[in-house]
Design a protein that fits this description.
Layout lengths: L9 H7 L21 H84 L5 H21 L2 E4 L12 E7 L8 E6 L1 E4 L2 E4 L1 E6 L1
Parallel strand pairs: 2-6
Antiparallel strand pairs: 1-4, 3-6, 4-5
Helix pairs in contact: 2-3
């Protein structure tokens, strides 16, 4: 049971003489939201952690790309070196083949030269012997040409003029059709499919 408050009691008098406790300025008007917002802080921390994780992921991807780039660069350099080596080997092979071809052709021609020297060494020979020796030497030379894929271009009279194989020196009146070969002044020669020189001809006007 509470006692009635007596303003004249000694207890009341003792309290009356004490000052009231000091409170912070604005404490009376403080609201719960002014004391801090834990939810907002947690959201900011979560966002920072997410950014950190994204940066880590980006760094890993960058490292992987750099490693792949280094690997591709090494592969490119190796492939380039292999290509350069292959090109040099091919050039060497072509040079050797060309040199060997010239040497082989020259060696075969030496036999023809020997035959000519032997013919000239004969002091007394009949016209028939000279003709026979010349034909034999010519056949020997044609055999050398054949071994080295060197073929003559000797068009038949009356055949059609071919600018890829023939060179017309002049056009003359003739009974043949216009453009037909009338005479062959000089044989042409081809090595394989390459024309060394065309045959010199005259054609019908």
């Amino acid at each position: 049971m509470s006692m009635p408050h007596d303003p004249h009691s000694p207890l009341s008098a003792s309290h009356a003489g004490q000052p009231e406790a000091d409170l912070p300025e604005g404490a009376d008007n403080a609201k719960p939201s002014d004391m801090g917002e834990p939810a907002d802080v947690n959201e900011e921390l979560a966002g920072l952690y997410a950014e950190i994780e994204q940066l880590k992921s980006n760094a890993q991807q960058l490292q992987a790309l750099q490693s792949k780039n280094a690997e591709l660069s090494d592969q490119y350099l190796r492939a380039k070196a292999d290509a350069d080596n292959a090109r040099r080997r091919a050039e060497d092979d072509v040079a050797k083949a060309r040199k060997f071809g010239i040497e082989s052709f020259a060696q075969d021609l030496l036999a023809v030269a020997d035959s000519l020297d032997a013919a000239l060494a004969i002091e007394a020979a009949s016209a028939e012997q000279l003709l026979e020796g010349t034909r034999a030497t010519q056949q020997q030379l044609l055999s050398v040409f054949e071994r080295h894929k060197l073929s003559p271009i000797a068009p038949e009279l009356g055949s059609k003029f071919d600018p890829n194989l023939h060179q017309a020196i002049s056009a003359v009146p003739a009974e043949q059709d216009s453009g037909a070969i009338v005479s062959v002044l000089q044989k042409g020669y081809a090595i394989g499919e390459r024309i060394l020189r065309p045959a010199l001809v005259t054609v019908a006007a």
